[in-house]
């Protein structure tokens, strides 16, 4: 579990806490190397982001760098198979520095990178682009991990252009600049057993955090206290932190899809929507529950809650190998639209309302996204002909229908100001699916009985 550094040795873990084994990282790199034909894969450094004078945000590496070696420091990574002098695995890291380490803890350093991460070659970070430039003279293709640093992207594109400009005189094959993301996304999209175990753990811890809220939330509590309770559970159980900004939204703030200010007090009679998941070993959970701040749902809240829950059950039921990715969304839409008609919010027949997207003012997002090392994980949603891709075992998706009636929505008054989302994490199995977050309580009667006991 939580490793202790050897005394006097380390003030840093260097690798993703509770993450995959070094053998897993080596196997992933080998898979990439095997796929590189006279090519280089280069993922540039993600720098620390400044929070305020002399203070940084918690560092989060580029997820593909995390996938390929698990280094938790700013570093560039190169995998090369083009006959250059740095073929294999190269890491470009921050050099050791007594001055810097006094303030922020030990760095893995250029020499340490080989032992700790199994790099064939290691260099100080500031020679990364120069080393790439030399390597490109031998390569036919550069698979480049496009960065959020657009200046860096431009510099690398210019480097490829320069390398091509020199080729007529210097020889060598034409150089292609390709995006590295799709290559890695294809593998990251299908989770192996070890990855699923980490995702299950992330979901179990997160579910526990949500369940604890059912026992502890009360009128007068502030949204940021709700956030603290759920995030305490994540951290106390081995997560390094939340996988994304926790949403703790009371009343009509729940109709703001990505509300994260979490700064108002909860009021009796309102609902509390909590969208929160921990990150364990580099893998994310993403769970939403919506429950009464008081003891029970009002009749209007119960109508809508039951409808969203029915839509979610119908959507989850569709998840199986061979099912199109959009089947859960279509199933959820059918139930939600039919329900909105029954409640007098929409009129006409369900198919026409779906066709005309009449539901959209109240359900404006899709039902699912991929989940993995990123909360909105990588992977294709559509095949080359534009149709939804088919689910296969090892894929993990969220199923998260909702209904959102803003305070000024054109609906009967008792539905105004209500936002409800119910979100679970679902893995496609060999013959159906497994709900990784099934520990998080969501049946209305069970929630109400726990809420009654909380007072
Ligand atoms: N927590 C963000 C989402 O549900 O997509
Ligand atoms: Mn989600
Ligand atoms: Mn969510």
Rg estimate, integer Å: 25 Å
Task: Estimate nothing, just give the exact number of structural domains.
Answer: 2
Shape: globular
The number of helical runs is 13
Helix and strand composition category? alpha+beta
CATH fourth-tier homologous superfamily of the largest domain: Creatinase/methionine aminopeptidase superfamily
Can you tell me the CATH class of the largest domain? Alpha Beta
Percent in strands: 15-25%
Mean pLDDT: 95
Bound molecules: glycine, manganese (II) ion
State the helicity in percent bands.
Answer: 25-40%
- Second CATH tier, the architecture of the largest domain: Alpha-Beta Complex
Going across the major beta sheet, what is the strand order?
6-5-4-1-7-8
Q: Uncertain spans, ≥5 residues at pLDDT below 50?
A: none
Largest sheet: 6 strands, mixed
- The total count of strands amounts to 19
- Quote the distance from N terminus to C terminus: 36 Å
CATH topology of the largest domain: Creatine Amidinohydrolase
Description of the molecule:
- There is one protein chain.
- By secondary structure, the protein is α+β, with helices and mostly antiparallel strands.
- It folds into 2 domains: 7-187, 3-Layer(aba) Sandwich (Creatine Amidinohydrolase, Chain A, domain 1), CATH 3.40.350; 190-454, Creatine Amidinohydrolase (Alpha-Beta Complex).
- It has helices at residues 22-35, 63-68, 98-104, 109-117, 128-136, 150-170, 181-188, 193-216, 223-236, 299-317, 327-342, 350-355, 444-453, and strands spanning 39-43, 50-52, 55-56, 75-81, 88-93, 121-124, 141-144, 176-179, 241-242, 247-250, 271-276, 278-280, 283-284, 287-292, 396-399, 402-405, 418-421, 424-428, 433-435.
- It is globular, with a radius of gyration of 25 Å.
- The mean pLDDT is 95.
- The site of glycine has 7 residues, from loops.
């Amino acid at each position: 579990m939580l490793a202790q550094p050897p005394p006097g040795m380390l003030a840093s873990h260097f690798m993703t806490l509770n993450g995959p084994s070094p053998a897993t990282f080596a196997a992933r790199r080998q898979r990439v190397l095997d796929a590189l034909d006279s090519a280089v894969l280069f993922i540039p450094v993600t720098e620390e982001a400044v929070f305020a004078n002399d203070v940084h945000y918690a560092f989060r590496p580029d997820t593909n760098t995390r996938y390929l070696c698990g280094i938790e420091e700013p570093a560039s990574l190169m995998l090369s198979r083009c006959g250059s002098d740095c073929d294999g695995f190269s890491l470009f890291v921050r050099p050791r520095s007594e001055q810097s380490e006094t303030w922020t803890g030990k760095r893995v350093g250029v020499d340490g990178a080989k032992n700790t991460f199994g790099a064939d070659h290691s260099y100080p970070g500031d020679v990364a682009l120069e080393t790439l430039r030399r390597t490109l003279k031998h390569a036919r293709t550069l698979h480049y991990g496009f960065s959020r640093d657009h200046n860096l992207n431009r510099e690398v594109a210019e480097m490829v252009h320069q390398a091509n400009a020199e080729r007529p005189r210097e020889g060598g094959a034409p150089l292609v600049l390709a995006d590295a993301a799709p290559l890695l996304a294809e593998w990251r999209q299908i989770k192996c057993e070890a990855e699923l175990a980490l995702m299950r753990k992330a979901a179990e811890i997160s579910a526990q955090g949500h369940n604890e809220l059912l026992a502890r939330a009360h009128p007068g509590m502030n949204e940021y206290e709700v956030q603290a309770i759920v995030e305490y559970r994540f951290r106390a159980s081995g997560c390094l932190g939340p996988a994304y900004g926790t949403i703790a939204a009371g009343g009509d703030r729940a109709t703001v899809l990505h509300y994260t200010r979490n700064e108002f007090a909860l009021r009796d009679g309102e609902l509390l929507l909590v969208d929160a998941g921990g990150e364990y070993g580099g893998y994310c959970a993403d769970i939403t529950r919506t429950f009464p701040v008081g003891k029970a749902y009002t009749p209007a809240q119960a109508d809508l809650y039951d409808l969203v829950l029915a839509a979610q059950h119908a959507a989850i039921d569709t998840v199986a190998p061979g099912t199109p990715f959009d089947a859960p969304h279509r199933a959820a839409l059918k139930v939600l639209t039919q329900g909105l008609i029954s409640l007098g919010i929409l009129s006409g027949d369900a198919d026409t309302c779906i066709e005309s997207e009449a539901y959209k003012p109240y359900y404006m997002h899709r039902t699912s996204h991929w989940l993995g090392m990123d909360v909105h994980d990588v992977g294709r949603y559509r095949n080359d002909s534009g149709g939804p891709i088919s689910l296969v075992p090892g894929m993990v998706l969220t199923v998260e229908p909702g209904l959102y009636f803003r305070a000024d929505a054109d609906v009967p008054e008792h539905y105004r100001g209500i936002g409800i989302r119910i979100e679970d994490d679902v893995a496609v199995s060999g013959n159906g699916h497994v709900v990784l977050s099934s520990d998080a309580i969501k049946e209305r009667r069970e929630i109400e009985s726990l809420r009654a006991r909380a007072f």
